[in-house]
Amino acid sequence: MNYRGSLVLSWNFRQIKSIYTSRSFAEMLTDYSDIQISISNFTTACSRKFREQNTAAAPLIVFLFTNRFRPNLPQYYQI
To answer: What is the pTM of this model?
Structure first.
């Protein structure tokens, strides 16, 4: 408690530069909701790593790429 009687939480997290979780989709996903679900599952796996390592993060960055091994399909890229 602080001097005014309110609860003060103290976090003891280790400081690390970054944590990386890399995943590939098991099959071609074309439906936006399926992609959302998969990204949510991957994010959950990364969060689990944070808790196991007693670490925390400020930003969360998600990179999503089209299948570069299928040149016959439309590719999305932004320059």
So the answer is: 0.59
